[in-house]
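Translate structure to sequence.
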């Protein structure tokens, strides 16, 4: 976290970071001076003392002429200190009058005329909340060259402490995947390993799975066939966040595993063919899972291949051509042929050998990957192969990543 800024630094950064006040918000009655001096507010009619303070955003006029809303007070009266939830109704009051605003060494103090309620906003909190948007993750894009040094953590380190889990989740977050060395060749131990991140997500395939190529479930994953690069559960409204595979045994040949960095490939597409990137970001796709009796799953609303973040980069990738129903003849002004041409360009990038990382899985070395980013595949194989693994929800993974790599105080400063 950044160090606590001085008042001068806070003022200096205001011009670039502050946004205009909505018409309905109330504000302090005059701009703060260059030193944030204490000043009295003008006398206005007093509203009933029973009305709680800070039920609307506070807006502070800064010397730049811009205005900054302060969403709410964090005192015990306004925020439940056990649950960190607001304790007031944000929408019942319209008129709040600051009596005094005082610059202190560690923050800004506001005393309210109606009840004398005192609010305090630390400088560090103010600086953080002037931006109040999630920090973009620092991804390390990769291609075939990652084979020289793939990310890995030892099983014993993960099982021994949360520091080991933090190391594991940080590698997954940065690279999109990570191997685990030295794992016991046991489905029970593998399940314990996966539970070190979070509880295992149950789907129509079950929870933790242990399977062979016997078509127990009506899905090509349960065959010996080659599979193209894809993400799993594209047909869920909320696709699975992580997936882990552990090869327990294989008597036979073939079955090499492929990983492809979907975010890196999307970045290449955005540069090479912006029109194709735009089409795959806008046109909804009818993903579905309908192979098993009694199961027909499709998202609450059709979703494009790319879901974008605020900067136009990919936040979530969905790609499994095998799980795609027929495309509509026209969608949002994009012709049928246009979508397929964009998809062909995309397919050419993800099947380019420079973007393919092939690895032969072995017993005792599970691999876990970010299913919102990394596509996986396999070559055809012969013989009997036994695999185990499971899914974890995206939100649970991110929560575990935050809480094993940062202090709770650091996390809460960015969230609340």
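Result:
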């Amino acid at each position: 976290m950044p160090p606590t800024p001085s008042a001068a630094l806070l003022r200096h950064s205001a011009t670039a970071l502050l946004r205009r006040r909505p018409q309905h918000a109330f504000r302090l009655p005059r701009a703060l001076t260059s030193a944030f001096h204490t000043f009295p507010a003008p006398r206005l009619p007093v509203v009933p003392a029973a009305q709680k303070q800070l039920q609307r955003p506070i807006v502070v006029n800064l010397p730049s002429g811009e205005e900054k809303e302060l969403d709410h007070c964090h005192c015990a009266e306004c925020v439940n200190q056990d649950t960190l939830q607001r304790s007031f109704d944000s929408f019942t009051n319209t008129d709040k009058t600051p009596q005094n605003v005082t610059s202190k060494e560690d923050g800004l103090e506001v005393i309210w005329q109606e009840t004398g309620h005192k609010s305090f906003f630390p400088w560090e909190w103010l600086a953080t909340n002037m931006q109040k948007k999630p920090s973009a993750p620092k991804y390390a894009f990769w291609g075939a060259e990652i084979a020289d040094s793939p990310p890995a953590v030892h099983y014993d380190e993960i099982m021994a402490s949360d520091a080991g889990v933090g190391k594991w989740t940080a590698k997954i977050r940065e690279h999109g995947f990570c191997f685990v060395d030295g794992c016991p060749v046991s489905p029970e131990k593998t399940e314990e390993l996966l539970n070190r991140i979070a509880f295992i997500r149950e789907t129509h395939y079950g929870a933790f799975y242990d399977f062979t190529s016997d078509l127990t479930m009506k899905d090509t994953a349960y065959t010996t066939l080659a599979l193209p690069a894809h993400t799993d559960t594209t047909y869920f409204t909320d696709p699975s966040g992580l997936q882990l595979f552990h090869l327990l045994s294989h008597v036979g040949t073939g079955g090499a595993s492929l990983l492809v960095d979907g975010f890196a490939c999307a970045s290449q597409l955005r540069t090479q063919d912006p029109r194709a990137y735009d089409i795959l970001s806008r046109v909804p796709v009818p993903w579905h899972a309908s192979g098993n009796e009694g199961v027909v799953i499709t998202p609450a609303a059709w979703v494009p291949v790319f879901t974008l973040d605020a900067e136009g980069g990919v936040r979530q990738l969905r790609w499994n051509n095998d799980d795609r129903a027929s495309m509509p003849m026209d969608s949002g002004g994009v012709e049928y042929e246009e979508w397929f041409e964009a998809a062909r360009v995309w397919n050419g990038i993800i099947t380019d050998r420079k973007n393919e990382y092939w690895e032969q899985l072995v017993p005792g070395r599970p691999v876990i990957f970010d299913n919102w980013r990394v596509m996986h595949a396999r070559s055809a194989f012969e013989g009997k192969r036994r695999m185990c693994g499971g899914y974890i929800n995206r939100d649970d993974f991110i929560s575990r990543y935050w809480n094993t790599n940062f202090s709770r105080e650091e996390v809460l400063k960015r969230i609340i």
